[in-house]
Amino acid sequence: MKKRNGQVLRDIVVIGASAGGVETLPKFFEDFEPGVGAAFFVVLHVTPNARSWMPEVLGRATQLPAQHAEDGKAIEPGKIYIAPPDYHVLIEDRRMRLSHGPKENRHRPAIDPLFRTAAEAHKSRVIGVVLTGTLDDGTMGLKAVKDAGGVTIVQEPREALYPDMPRNALQVVGPDFVLPLKKINTLLARLIQEPAKEKVMKGFKDKGMKPENKRIKSGNKISSDLGPPSMFVCPECNGPLWEMRDGKATLFRCMVGHSFAPENLFAAQTEEVERALWIALRALEERIGLQHKLANRADSEKRDLSSKHFLNRARENGKHAAVLRKILEQFK
Question: Which residues are catalytic?
Answer without folding.
Answer: 18, 45, 137
